[in-house]
Design a protein that fits this description.
Layout (H helix, E strand, L loop, with lengths): L1 E6 L5 H13 L4 E7 L12 E4 L8 H12 L3 E3 L3 H8 L2 H6 L3 E2 L4 H8 L1 H10 L20 E5 L9 E3 L2 H8 L5 E5 L2 E11 L5 E13 L2 E7 L3 H11 L6 E11 L7 E8 L6 H7 L3 H19 L25 E3 L12 E3 L22 E4 L8 H13 L8 H13 L4 H8 L5 H12 L9 H10 L5 E6 L3 H11 L7 E4 L19 H10 L6 E5 L7 H6 L2 E5 L16
Parallel strand pairs: 1-2, 1-4, 2-3, 4-5, 15-20, 16-17, 16-19, 17-18, 19-20
Antiparallel strand pairs: 6-7, 6-8, 9-10, 9-12, 10-11, 11-14, 12-13
Helix pairs in contact: 3-5, 5-6, 11-12, 11-14, 12-13
């Protein structure tokens, strides 16, 4: 599994989604962590796991991040705001020691980006045009109009145009630590650049800024401009970038110019707010990150002489200038999500009819539709496992007493071992065809299972109430449908969705399992009930509630001590 931590996750919902999509593209298990000082940051709702941290300026910030990365075995840390960059860059070696790669450039380059004077000097050093900056209004002599902005500013905060000396002096008295640059009349562009750990460019993506709000692009047009690409390579000869950097320029002219030129004005050495637009157009930097991390893992495994099961990924040693959706216009929009909705915890399904200790109202009050999980919510999944082992034991495939076979399987399972492999080894069976037959018996069994007593009471009581009932369950279609039939519960439900069935013939079933929200959106439409009048009940606090809460549903965590996952984290098959 690849684990990636984003710091100051904030509103970077699109970026989290882009990394989840990249994981699906290569069928890689990826866990996205989000760190923020506020638990209501929207992007956290799209992370698999969240961490609350102190302010970046706090002395405990870096030690806390190091503790998180070590504890969670984080493979890569990706910063998302300017104030994070330098402090992380200065501690790059500390993170490397615990095995965490930082997608951030070295301190000397970060400092050049954070100080607009040094940025301009750097552009000149690279042989690129840039508006000449000055930090003293008395020394400014490049004509009007001009721009005044903070020396280390971002997001166009306190950036103003001045059309006269009087206006400029008035602004200079208000803007702290400013620089002044001559105004360049023209069109604004952004170049999204992604570089690997070796500083080599993987994606160079120029785009025109068509609409901007508070310095962040709302609408953009992809333009594979060869001049800008070559100028970017020129910059990268001096700027040893790691990860994403965002370069801004104006193609236009100053008052004394006779023709348009590219005037470079800013470098943000991180994912810019508009970077997901380039990703959508084909500059798949999240995919590149995952491939690079696969290569890192491969190298580590190779060093330890264990390369089993590792996907070496694809080589990324050429700039990806093709396969881009050029000339197309991309736009962005805001979307509201509920971030303070937390699941209610219960220990008995009949507690749904009791009062919520926080609100004083019955948990089911105001609910018109209830959606239930299946495994370890309505019945014990361990019961299903034991049933499968019994079917294997009495199949006659293994020449041994059935009771002994069943106990061998069950004991291996309880010891968190691959039960079937342990059993076959014990009886000296190495024929892969026998193993396949055993697995098929398990997967296609007619299970001997029964509802939890409280689940039976719940379903019976709900059948007398004016509440629509839905079931959403993950897993192989044949297995889940067999469970539903064995439990004789289809009669209770208005709608049943087995998420693997949503994949059709060509899709990957695991892509549609929880916490994917598609099944919940389909269920909402089928039941015809608004999101805020729906409630979901599931036993897995790690994946069951993320989608319904994000969609605005109510959620209940059935903290089931009998749950299969509390006993073992490995699959009982194989």
């Amino acid at each position: 599994m690849i684990k990636i931590l984003f710091t100051s996750a904030g509103r970077r919902v699109e970026l989290m989604q882009a990394f989840h999509r990249a994981a699906e593209m290569i069928n890689e298990k990826v866990m996205i962590y989000g760190a923020d000082m506020s638990d209501s940051a929207p992007a956290l709702a799209y992370c698999d796991k969240t961490e609350l941290v102190c302010r970046i300026s706090d002395d405990n910030y870096i030690p806390l991040l190091l503790e998180i990365c070590k504890r969670e075995e984080i493979d890569a840390l990706i910063p998302t705001i300017d104030t994070d960059l330098l402090v992380l860059s200065e501690h790059k070696a500390d993170f490397e020691k615990i095995g965490t790669k930082l997608l951030v450039s070295d301190p000397e380059f970060i400092r050049a980006c954070r100080d607009k004077r040094k940025t301009a000097e750097f552009f000149v050093k690279c042989g690129l045009d840039t508006p000449n900056p000055t930090d003293n209004v008395d020394n400014y002599s490049d004509g009007y109009p001009c721009f005044i902005k903070p020396l280390d500013g971002s997001s166009s905060i306190n950036a103003f145009r001045a059309d006269s000396e009087k206006q400029l002096r008035g602004l200079a008295a208000k803007v702290p630590d400013y620089i002044i640059q001559p105004f360049v009349s023209g069109e604004e562009y952004t170049i999204d650049i992604f570089c690997g750990f070796d500083n080599k460019p993987i994606y160079i993506t120029p785009r025109k800024r068509l609409a901007v709000r508070s310095g962040e692009v709302l609408k953009t047009q992809m333009l594979m401009d060869l001049k800008m690409i070559e100028e970017s390579k020129q910059l990268l000869e001096k700027f040893k970038a790691v990860g994403e950097i965002t370069v801004q320029l104006i193609r236009g002219r100053k008052a004394e110019d006779t023709e348009d030129r590219d005037y470079y004005i800013e470098i943000n050495p991180r994912y810019g707010g508009g970077a997901p637009l380039s990703i959508k157009a084909g500059a798949e930097s999240p995919l590149a990150v995952l491939k690079l991390l696969q290569q890192v893992k491969l190298q580590k495994a190779s060093d330890s002489k264990d390369v089993s099961g590792i996907n070496p990924g694809l080589p990324y040693d050429e700039v990806a200038e093709t396969n881009m959706d050029t000339d197309s216009v991309y736009t962005r929009f805001d979307q509201s999500i509920c971030v303070d909705n937390k699941p209610v915890e219960i220990h008995n399904l009949m507690d749904l009819f009791e009062e919520n200790e926080n609100t004083g109202k019955k948990i089911l009050a105001g609910i018109d539709g209830l959606i239930l999980d299946l495994d370890d919510t309505l019945y014990s999944e361990k019961q299903y496992v034991r049933s499968g082992y019994h079917k294997i034991a009495i199949s006659g495939l293994i020449d041994a007493p059935s009771e002994e076979i069943e106990e061998t399987l069950w004991n291996a399972f309880c010891n968190k071992q691959k039960a079937i492999d342990v059993m076959l080894t014990k009886y000296g069976i190495s024929d892969p065809s026998v193993k396949e037959k055993v697995i098929q018996i398990y997967r296609y069994q007619e299970p001997e299972i029964s509802l939890y007593p409280d689940a039976q009471k719940l379903l019976s009581k709900l059948s007398t109430m004016d509440i629509k009932l839905g079931l959403i369950t993950d897993g192989r279609s044949e297995g889940q449908r067999a469970k539903i039939k064995a439990l004789d519960i289809e009669k209770y439900f208005d709608e049943i969705i087995v998420t693997d069935e949503l994949a059709g013939k060509s899709g990957h079933p695991e892509d549609f399992r929880k916490p994917n929200s598609l099944a919940f959106e389909i269920m909402q439409r089928r039941l015809g009930i608004s999101m805020h009048n729906l409630m979901y009940v599931g036993d897995n606090e790690n994946k069951d509630h993320k989608a319904p809460l994000t969609l605005g549903m109510k959620a209940v965590w059935f903290n089931n001590e009998d749950a299969f996952r509390k006993m073992t984290k490995i699959m009982p098959v194989g």
